[in-house]
Specification:
This protein is an all-alpha fold and 296 residues long. The chain is built from 13 helices and 2 strands; from the N terminus they run αααααααααααββαα.
C-alpha cells in the first residue's frame, strides 16, 4: 500500500531482503516483524501513560524511565534500518509514515533538555496506523481514500459555510456585548462575547457565560435553534460528495467488467458474429450504426 510503502525497493542484495522484512508483509519474517513492532509500540504507550500516574514509588518511576529509553533505542535502530534498506532515502524520510517515525523518537531525546517533553511520547500512538498493513485491510484504505477525496472536492463549499458561520458569530457576539455588558460581567468584551456565540451556535453550552436580559435570552434562543439547523449542512455537503464518488466508482467498475467476445481464428478481429463490428457488442446498436456508416 502506497501509504506505508515508500516504493523504493532495491532490486537485489541484502538491502532487498531487509526491505521485504521491514516494509512488506508478504513473507513470514515481514509479518512477524510488523506484529512485534506493534507490540513494542503498545508497550511504549503503556509505559509513557504509567509515568504520568501520581503516587508511584521512585523505584517504579526509575524502572519505567529505563524501559522507555530501551524502547526508544529500539525505535532508533528501526528508523535507521528503514533509511538504510530503502533505495530512495529522501522519499522515505519525507513521506507521511517516515515523518511519523521520526517525530515518535524526538520527545524522548528532547526530554534531556525539556522535562515536559516526555509526555509528548504518546504521539507514538500514530505508529499504530501500521496495523492496517499488518491486517491487510485494503478495502478500508480504499474507503478512507474515497472519504479524503470527498472532503477535498467539497472544500470550497465548506470554506463558504465556515466563513458564513464566522460572520454570524461575530455579529451575534457584538450584539450580545452591547446588550449585556453593562448588566452582565460575563460579556466583558466583544471577543469574549464571540466565544459565547461559538459555544452556543455549536450547541456545546458550557454555561460559564449566559445572558440575563430578556433581549439577550431571546437572541440566544434563536442562535441555539439556528445551531441545530446548521449541523446538517456540512454533513450533507460531504455526504453528497461521497455518494457521487461512490456512484462514479461503481459505474467505472461496471464498464471495466464488460468483455469483448474474441473472434475465431483466421477471422478479421474488426468483425465478429456475421460481420457485426466488435464495437457494437460493447457500444450498442447506436455505436454499431455509426461504425457501419463509416465503413460504407
Amino acid at each position: 500500500m502506497r501509504f506505508f510503502d515508500p516504493e523504493s525497493r532495491p532490486k537485489y542484495g541484502w538491502r532487498a531482503r531487509g526491505y521485504a522484512i521491514i516494509f512488506e508483509t508478504d513473507t513470514r519474517a515481514g509479518m512477524l516483524f510488523d506484529i512485534t513492532l506493534l507490540g513494542v509500540i503498545l508497550l511504549s504507550i503503556i509505559v509513557v501513560s504509567l509515568e504520568t500516574v501520581q503516587g508511584l514509588a521512585a523505584s517504579q518511576v526509575k524502572s519505567l524511565r529505563i524501559t522507555e529509553w530501551v524502547l526508544t533505542g529500539l525505535f532508533t535502530v528501526e528508523y535507521i534500518a528503514r533509511i538504510v534498506v530503502v533505495k530512495d532515502k529522501r522519499r522515505y524520510v519525507l513521506s507521511l509514515m517516515g515523518l511519523v517515525d521520526l517525530i515518535a523518537l524526538l520527545p524522548t531525546y528532547l526530554s534531556l533538555l525539556f522535562l515536559d517533553a516526555q509526555a509528548l511520547q504518546i504521539i507514538r500512538a500514530l505508529r499504530l496506523l501500521r496495523v492496517f498493513r499488518v491486517l491487510e485491510l485494503g478495502p478500508l484504505a480504499d474507503e478512507g481514500s474515497s472519504l479524503v477525496r470527498a472532503l477535498l472536492a467539497s472544500r470550497h463549499k465548506i470554506m463558504v459555510f465556515m466563513a458564513t458561520m464566522l460572520i454570524v458569530v461575530v455579529i451575534q457576539g457584538a450584539l450580545l456585548y452591547f446588550i449585556e455588558h453593562q448588566i452582565n460581567p460575563g460579556f466583558s468584551s466583544i471577543p469574549r462575547s464571540i466565544y459565547w456565540a461559538i459555544v452556543t451556535l455549536t450547541t456545546v453550552g458550557y454555561g460559564d457565560i449566559a445572558p440575563v436580559s430578556v433581549p439577550g435570552q431571546f437572541i440566544a434562543s434563536l442562535l441555539m435553534l439556528f445551531g441545530y439547523g446548521i449541523i446538517a449542512v456540512p454533513t450533507g455537503i460531504v455526504g453528497a460528495e461521497v455518494a457521487l464518488a461512490e456512484l462514479i466508482r461503481r459505474r467505472m467498475g461496471s464498464e471495466a467488467e464488460q468483455v469483448v467476445l474474441p473472434s475465431p481464428a483466421g477471422v478479421d478481429p474488426s468483425n465478429c458474429a456475421g460481420g457485426v463490428p466488435a464495437s457494437a457488442i460493447v457500444g450498442g446498436p447506436a455505436h454499431a450504426n455509426v461504425t457501419t456508416q463509416e465503413r460504407d
